[in-house]
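Sequence in, structure out.
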Amino acid sequence: MFIIGYLILRSTFLPRVLGVLLGIGGLSYVVVCFANFLLPPLGARLTPFIFPVAFIGEGSLAVWLLVKGVHVQRWKDQASAVEGLRK
């Protein structure tokens, strides 16, 4: 999720705030995994607080794509620019 958040942050097709939220969600997954590995009782206590943070990032991306979608004109402009570079 962190890498997807970074890619969304760098892209122009989706709002950057979605990339930030996904990055935070990805980091929260890493925190829970390390906590479960190093201190399982602490990891069990952190899970109910950390997973909603990840859900906000993933949920916001899903809702954005369902409601708004990708900016089609920018997508086509980017594709034509790449196609021009290939020739």
